[in-house]
Write a structure and sequence with these properties.
about 325 residues, mainly alpha, 13 helices, about 70% helix, about 0% strand, globular
């Protein structure tokens, strides 16, 4: 059996990924002190506090949005213990998180049946496309979304990794048919543990990963069973996994007393208000409603496109 060689397209895409990742790595290591903002600097300070107190959740550290359980500040504290350089430690931690996130994206794409070239292209797009000029980070010139995934603190890289691994494992369990492979079951159990840990951090893991996964599993179950007219063990297993992950997230939050700030779930009135103003009223302004800067902004247009994409996706899901 001959070894599979990389095609020219795969080599070109891989080189582009390496070059782009090299640029991001250079920015992390060489431009941290020049462009870092207060949110990212706070992660470095937390890493230093963890190192100083030898406690993952220092009592003198006030939690703003969630606890840092699986986050760049945690390994950065270990690196700071070794190097004594907070900026270097955060850059190294962000680089490692970015590598893991990229591998998890490839894991998801391969689970969906994509070729290696398509998987590398998706990784390249993830690094190259997070450009939203409306949210440039102060005077640094870096798009805000890029700082959430790759630069300076990589606040959301852990959540994206969790999401990619969850979808990739669900796809593999679906391809297994009625008899799931043991390694995929073990990996699903590990993801439930991760959901529990993220649940102890706050509500973001629930909002960004486990609840959307549950909604998708419900749609798959309804389609697989033809609206309860037949049995579908594969969809039922996927639905069960998603439900267990949601319970693990909620259980982690209840046991740890995780903060629920900035979740929009504490006050039902604020939930309704945020929903109507942010996702309904704003896009409707583009269709001839109230003409104000906030309602006719590019963000409103993107929200309108998002709702259209969701509606079309659900329609196509049941038509296919």
């Amino acid at each position: 059996m001959k070894d599979k060689k990389l095609t020219i397209q795969e080599v070109v895409t891989l080189c582009a990924v390496i070059v782009f990742f090299g640029v991001l790595t250079y920015i992390n290591f060489c431009c941290y002190r020049r462009y870092v903002d207060s949110d990212s600097a706070a992660e470095a300070l937390l890493a230093m506090r963890i190192r100083g107190t030898h406690h993952l959740f220092p009592e003198t550290w006030y939690i703003s949005t969630d606890r840092r359980t699986i986050a760049t500040a945690v390994p950065a504290a270990v690196f700071y213990f070794i190097t004594g350089n907070a900026a270097f430690s955060m850059a190294l931690s962000c680089t490692l998180f970015s590598i893991v996130m990229g591998l998890s994206l490839i894991y998801m794409m391969r689970g969906a049946g994509a070729s290696m070239n398509a998987s590398l292209t998706a990784l390249l797009l993830l690094m190259a496309l997070p450009v939203n000029p409306g949210h440039i980070m102060f005077e640094s010139g870096f798009p805000y979304f890029m700082t959430l995934l790759f630069l300076f603190a990589s606040h959301y890289s852990g959540y994206f990794t969790f999401f990619f691994l969850t979808v990739g494992t669900a796809l593999r369990l679906r391809h297994d048919g009625e008899r799931a492979e043991r390694k995929h079951i073990v990996f699903a159990a590990v993801l439930c543990l991760v959901a529990f840990i993220y649940g102890g951090a706050g509500m973001r893991g629930l909002q960004l990963v486990t609840l959307p996964f549950l909604c998708f599993a419900v749609l798959c179950f309804l389609k697989g069973t033809d609206l309860f007219r037949r049995k579908d063990r594969v969809s039922a297993r996927e639905l069960g996994l998603s439900f267990i992950m949601v319970l693990c997230s909620l259980g982690g939050g209840v046991i740890s007393g995780a903060p629920a700030v900035h979740t929009g779930m504490a006050d039902p009135q604020s939930v309704f208000s945020n929903f109507t103003t942010a996702t309904i009223t704003n896009p409707l302004a583009l269709l001839g409603g109230e003409k104000t800067d906030s309602l006719s902004s590019p963000e409103s247009f993107l929200q309108l496109l998002m709702w259209g994409a969701v509606i079309l996706s659900v329609y196509a899901f049941f038509r296919l």
